[in-house]
Amino acid sequence: MIKIKIFFAILILQLPVLAQQKVLLTDPEIQFSVTEDINQMYNFNFSRADSQFQILKKKYPKHPLPYFLLGYSQYWRILTNENFKGFDPLFHAYMDSVITFSDKLYDEDSKNYEAIFFLTAAHAFKGRRYSDLEKWVPATNSGRKALKYLNKSKEYNDFSPEFLFGEGLYNYFRQWIPENFKAFKPVMWFFAKGDKAKGIAQLKQCSENAFYTRVEAQHYLAKIYLFEETSYKEALPIAKYLHDLYPDNPVFHRLYARILFQMNDHYQAEKVSKTILNRVENKKYGYSVIDGRYSAFFIAWNQNARNKDTSKLYFEKSLKYCVEAEAQKMNYYHFALAELAKMANIAKDKKLAIYYYKIILDNADKKSNLYKEAKTYIKTNNE
To answer: Three-state SS string across 167-196, please?
Structure first.
């Protein structure tokens, strides 16, 4: 599943292709308008962004661009909680319209790279969404179509720093996948070789010089530094910049808090997390139980050495949000359970400790240290 998600991430958002062709986004007025609307979208002001995209659709009813932007706007809603399917019908409807109008352009001219871009992007977005939901047959079909058009557009990757976004992602993950997933190594022979260092350099250049893909490149760079390279000092300024620029974006907000936590800056992580949790509890648009499970855990962990009662309260909140998010297989859930079990043991409430450890046994990987800890405790203390 991870391999497929990364593959689709490589394919999506090849937006700069548009900027370099004699197409709609080369018009300075339209370009400025769309860029501002995309900024509004990133800051979760969807009503303002979508209203402008709708105006563009009325002006160009048979062009794929406005449908793509409207579909992309739906996709950013999806990113807040990938388990929620409420945005899917409209998302797929817009992307299907993109494909319909792009097919017409492509049928008229197979070298119309505007059409090739939209076909690549729409199929890749649809495939990525299917993979999120583990619908592997439609995900594979969409991925195959996206790759077909992506290969056709590669000869145009030298026009601008904008093109470095897709190329950078490909270079990085093409090398990363076989290094981390040996089972996929034979499959990767079918793809051109990659280069992680070159991929990061290309993403950096894109994030500094590109116009349309700047924010996307920054977002992916921060995630690569956090999750793959564990270069937290590299990730932090990017995440802080994105959060400062788009303070109402829960995806960037959550990313910023996670990097602070990983850097052991627990004071700042707790401060940021309290803001996130407040927004979750006050049902601010875009903030979900996903944000709640992270932020509550970060606060609990920071309080653990200072105030056990407060720590216990927030660990319990984290568990609550984990269950609501159906994230019982995730490590934060297991760590919260283990900490609560330890607190119960200190309070000489072995039954409660065993209760927490049994939940770990039901959900954690049998090879993990927490699973072994839970098994040992139950064996030792079960009367």
So the answer is: HHHHHHHHHHHHHHCHHHCCHHHHCCCCCH
Cα–Cα distance, 4 to 130 (Å, whole number): 10
Q: Cα separation of 287 and 321, whole Å?
A: 12
Angle between helices 164-180 and 2-11 (to 10 degrees): 160
Enclosing H/E stretch for 138 = helix 136-153
CATH class, 2-156 region = mainly alpha
245 in Cβ contact with 282 (< 8 Å):
no
Can you state the angle between helices 196-209 and 164-180, rounded to 10 degrees? 150
Range list for CATH 1.25.40.10 in the chain? 241-381
Sign of the dihedral through C-alpha 132, 71, 26, 41 = negative
Architecture of domain 241-381: Alpha Horseshoe (1.25)
Closest by Cα among 18, 16, 15 to 112: 18
Which two structure tokens, joined as six digits, stand for 304? Answer: 């653990």
Q: Over the stretch 204-215, which tens digit does the pLDDT of each residue have? A: 988 887 776 788
Residues 306-351 have pLDDT tens digits of 899 999 999 999 999 999 988 889 899 999 999 999 999 999 999 9
Cα 91 to Cα 142: distance, rounded to the nearest angstrom: 15
Amino acid in the structure at residue 322? C
Q: How far apart are CA 114 and CA 180, in angstroms?
A: 35
The tokens 């599943």 sit on which residue?
A: 1
Instruction: List % helix, strand, coil for the chain (3-state, nearest 5).
Output: 80, 0, 20
